[in-house]
Amino acid sequence: MADDVVAWLSDVVGRPGAVEVVEALADGAKSHIALCAAVPLAKRKLERVLRTLAAEGVLVRCDEPGTWDLWPGRTTRYALTASGRELVAVLSDLDVWVAIYERYLDGRCDGDHRRIRRTWR
């Protein structure tokens, strides 16, 4: 697997709640309320993860056209994009998790991963 793909995967799955959100959406679109129940994060943290995954092209917000600046309503639903569905398939491969873990052990992770690693030493 290419190192840039592993780097991107490391960044995405390294975000708290990201894997849980992708897993919750793997079997179809969900409402914001259903995601709150499925993912053990505070509402603001969940919203941050949703925005990040949307910016990465992993999911879309399926409600009336508008902006992410508004708090999601009861009818707001989220669904995986084609890239998000590919991500689910890729993450089901154990070799991918091994590559991500080896990248972490080698210290080649960016951002929060290094901070977390330093606190464990």
From TrEMBL:
Residue ranges of every copy of the HTH hxlR-type domain listed in the record: 20-101
Origin: domain of life: Bacteria
A matching Pfam family: HxlR
Protein's name according to its UniProt entry: Winged helix-turn-helix transcriptional regulator
Organism: Amycolatopsis nalaikhensis
